[in-house]
Each structure stands twice: as structure tokens, then as C-alpha cells.
Write the C-alpha cells for this entry.
Amino acid sequence: MVKVVVIGGGWAGCAAALTAKKAGAEVVLLEKTDMLLGCGLVGGIMRNNGRFTAAEELKYLGGHELIEITDMCARHRNIEFPGHKHANLYDITKVEPEIRKMLLNKGIKIKFISRAADVVMENKTKIKGIVLDDESVEYGDVFIETTGSTGPMGNCLRYGNGCSMCILRCPSFGPRISISYRAGVEDILGMRSDEVYGAFSGSCKLNKDSLSDEIREKLDKEGVVVLPVPEEDVNMDKLNIKVCQQYALPEYAKNVILLDTGHAKLMTPFYPLEKLRKIPGLERARFEDPYSGGKANSIRYLSIAPRNNGMKVKGLDNLLCAGEKSGLFTGHTEAMTTGCLAGHNSVRLSLGMPLLELPRNLASGDLIAYENECIETKEGLKNRYTFAGGIYFERMKSLGLYTTNTDVIREKVERDNLIGIYDEKLV
Amino acid sequence: MNHRLECIDIGSDYCPCYLAELNECIVCSQLQGKEFCDCNWNGVCVYQDFIWSKRKAKAKRETIVADIIDKQNINKNLIILTLSVPNKMARDLNEPGSYVFLRNESTPSFFDAPMSVMYADEINGIIKIAVQINGPKTNVINSCGKRVFLRGPYWNGLFGHKYIKGTRNSKCLVILRGIAQAPGAIIINKLYNNNNEITVIIDKGKVEEFFIWQYINNFNLKIITTDLLSNDGQDILKKAIADNDIKLIYSGGSDEQHLNILNYLDLLDSKAYFAVSNNNTICCGEGICGSCEVQIDGQKIRSCKVQLDVRKAIERRVLHG
């Protein structure tokens, strides 16, 4: 029996645990907090723009459980907001329990409040185990790091506006540790356009009960509300600091865009409360995530591992990575795409089989390979790579990788002979 | 990759300290001159605290004047001082491993002598300290009249803090010799409060007295007095360690005593946690002067502030000290 240890229970970690289990491994998932999904607990945007294609690809490849749950938990389906078409917004309060149940039913062992603190090495290139903060060691054959690239507090302070009390809750559950770095591999860092390292998370959330009745009803009904910002408060520079370049559009500086994901998702990294409350209908507004959304948000992209296109970390024999840990990716769908591949490949790696690389006629395969090419240059480090917008969605369209025709997507995956590959038991 | 160190002061009123100002913080990578986080501290960020404190050490331990309420001459080598201190000081010192620096008012600061706290009463603002008279510093403390200079609180008088604090509802063995009985009293108190069943082995040692008896006699302990250096004493020790139900052993005494117990632990394949008194030469208590520095696996560690790996600390000291 191959034992795979996944470090980090965000979307990427959950996806990796799922496919490693389906490929036949014994899987332990380590999560430092008391909930799964990490930033996915306060996200919710699925299927917008190219993410529709990627979600369908993932279903046909065999990662269907994840997409089924996010579809099932959608509060709004097929909506439009500035720059984005056919989006689903999942209900952030419903998804986590469903994912937790699904993973447990598959027989995955989830260890909550179990923070990875260090590694035990067998030799210079092989990890033997993960040291948890209670000094116990989780041994394994193959490891998948999906710890993300956000925090801890010192990084959010040095490269941002300080701790914003985000969903990752470092002061309560301890700092994120870069496992690859502890194992001796240097991190790659993303930059902002002003060549400062890291980037702010791109959205915050308002408590829906703190909004006017009119706005709340409209959100519940339509999922989107666009409110103009007073002229004197329009800040175009703010678009440069965001992670989510798919939302770095002029509309997002001139307007406050709210999306209904259970809270009211505000599509900007942070917004001074004084200014926010000047907007009609937001006189009583207060932040739900991060709690200090009036002054800051979490800083991301400070800890990316160099990897190949099979998601294995370069320089180490038995560590794979996925999600934001594996590149300048943004979003749940991107985390699921890379996570599923890393999980499946963890079993291949343990068997000495060649790792699966997704072909570039699929958006998923192209994104993984393209990001890896781009980050060789400084300019590339300033970009973000997401199916949902920015440079990558443009590329998808120009290469004909973007389609909402599910038959076309299915045929492609069939031609690649990859239908249900993640459902395949290898051991 | 250096092993991450645990600072005893982290998260306390005295963190961040001078070391943070000097880019020498024991825990925070950002305050060691690095650019990114790589700490292992489960609590509020030291770097953030440092920035909030305007890049200055937050609180500094000042030298205060403590009234001597009582001075007991137990014998010619041993005195017990009862000192009046602020309630907060007493509260801070009611911890295993706590110590303060004492000196005679008429002497310069290099007369500061680190002294373990034997007893602390936070309600009345009283602490008791046992002093073994054996050199210039303790001699002038002995000649103090009504007052004494006191600097504190410090906490790293033992290695294995988390074992002492974390052991509950279990069997514990406490071995104390000589003046090391003094800090043992607070440790026994802590273990007792955590509902442990405690066996104490006392060796009067060079102070020739079982002087903590009145501080621990209410705790329903099993107390054995012996000479640990005798054959009988060694038999008692070995037999006590052989009890498989023992979850924690604390050794207060010399490094040779620690090693003696460690050897029995290995011989008997005991799984008990092991905590020991910190016997390194402590001089400033602030991680500045370096007199307490030890080198473990090539890493220089200032043991007045850092919780060492007990086994490595003992083996290193005894073999190369």
C-alpha cells in the first residue's frame, strides 16, 4: 500500500487527496485549522469565463466529485457580472461540510488542527516524514504540498498592510510553513507590477445583514449588485496590487461590485470602511472576511515551489505540489485542476510509472505548462494565470481552448484517451 | 537548515526584546535579517508586535528594590530569603523554571546572581529564594540588610517546560539534590495542581538539609530521602525509574546527575518525558552576553532563553563541557 500525505486542506489539497485515494493510495490529509477549503471558505466563484471549460475538462478527467458538489451548492447559476460570463456562485456555508463528508466517505484520513512544522529527510532529496507542531511525525511514501502561498502574519505585514484576520487564522492555528523550503528547495516569488513581492487577495466579504434591504434582496435574487463609487474615491492604482487580475478591470475601480456567495463578496482587496459607508445602501456595512477588510487583506504568492508539468517539485524525489504552491494560479478551479493531477501522479511516482502530463489541447494542460514557461522571466512573475481572465483567458480564446460546448470538451478528452483517468485505480 | 529554536519569552510582556532590535531574534526569521517568514510560533506574530512597538523592544526588565521580610539561616551555607515584590512579579514567578537576579544594593551590576524561585505567593506579593553561600556574589547577598536589588522575571531555569506543564493525571518522578530542591518546590506544586501522582527523591547534597519539606508536605507525595551517590541511592533511583507507568521525570541537580538518570532511562528503555534543571552559566538572562551559550549540532544557542533538547544538552555538556 502506498501512503500519500497531503499537506494543506484547501481546494488543491482536497482534490489531491481525492485522486490519490482513487488511484489506490492510503491518504492522510493534514490541515492546520479546523475546516477544509482554506481560502475556498470565503471564495465561491466557479465556471466564470474559461473556468467553465476547465470545470468540464476536470469532470471528464475524473475529478467530477468536486465539480458536482460546487454545482450542487450553487446559490446562483449562470450569472453575469462585469467582465465575466456564465458564472456560478457557490454557497460558502454549504460546500465545506459536503466536501468533508465526501472525502471521509472515500476513506481519506483527515487530521485537523495538525500543522506541518518541518520535514524529516531520508537523504538530501527524499522526504521521510512531516513533523507536526506537537512534534509527532507523519511518515509517508509520497508527499503533496498544497500549503498555498499566503501568510503567515510577518509576510502579510512586510509585504502588505499587516494581518487582516483572514480565514487562515494564523494567530489561532499557527504559521504556514513552506515544506519545500524546509526540504531544501528555494521558493519562487510572485511580484506586483511595482516589483514588490506578493499580492493582495482580490476580494473581501461584507456581512449581508449589514447592507440595506434593497441591496440584500437584489443580491439574493440576482447574485450581483453594482454600485458606483463616489468620483473622489475612485482609485485606479488599487488594481495593481490584486492577485486576481481577472478582476483588475476599470469597472472594478469605478464601482463596488458585490456578489452573493452567502456573504456579500466585495470585489476589491480591502476598502476603508469610512469610504465604503458613503455609498448609498452601505451605511451600516461591516466586514465579515477578512475581519479587518477595511485596512488590509492577506498577501499571497510568497512561496511557490519549482515544479515540472507532472506537478513534481524539482530537486526532490517524492514531493509534488498543487494549487497556489505550484504556481501563480488564482482560483478554486485552478487549485482543483492542479490538485487532481498531483494526487493522481503521487501514486504513479511511488510506482515508478511516468507521470501524467495533461496535453496542451486541453485548457488545463496548457495552463500548467504555460505558467511554467512564463515564470522564467520577471515579467511572467508579475502576471497571474487563471482560466477566468487576464492574459491567460485571452490566450485560451486565441488558441481555441475556450468553449462552453460540453460535447466538444468531452470529445477532446476522449481523443486524448483520458476519460476517467483519475478514476483509474493504479495499485 | 538550522533547527528552529523556541524562546521562553515569546508572546510574553518581554517580547520582542533587545535581540529583535539587533536582528538576532531567536524565533522570527524576519527579525534575523531574512526577508520571509519561516517561524514555528503558534501565536501573535513577533514581527508584527515589533512593528507595533515602533521597532523597539517592548518592555524591559528593570532592576527593582525588594524588601527583605525575613531571612532564615538554615545553616552556615544556606539562607532562605523572603522578599516583598509587586503582585505581578510574584504571579509571573509562580512558574516552573522561574528565576531572578539578586544583588546587594552596594554592589555594581556585575554582582547580579541568578537565583531560582522556590515559592511565590501572588496574593500577598511574596517570593522565597534559597541561597547557597559559595562565592563572592552569594556572600554579599548574605550580607544584605533590609533590601536587595532584584531583576526579573526570568523563566528558563529548566529544560522541558512543555512536559512539566503538559503532564496531567499521570505518575511523575521528581529527583532533587542539594540547592536544586528550591526550584523543585514550584515544579512539584505545578505537577500536583495538574492532578499527577508524584514520587519525590530527595538528596540533601552539599546544603545538608531537606529544606523544602514545609513547602511540599501538603501534597500527598511519596517522599524518599537518600544519598544518590551511594549504592543504596542508585538502587532506589533505578527502581523508581523502572516503573513503566511513569510519564515524566524531572531531575534537579548537576549535569552528572542528569546523565546518570538519562543512562537509566536508556538502560530500562523508559518512554518517560525527561525535564532537567538548566545548569549553564547564566549571567545576563537576556541572550546578550553569551556566557550561557552552548553549541548543539553546530548551532550556537543561548540557553538562558532557549528550551534545549534535553538529551543533546546533557550529553554535550558532560562530554565536552
Q: What stands out?
A: The interface with chain A takes residues 1, 4, 28-30, 35-48, 51 of chain B (CB under 8 Å).
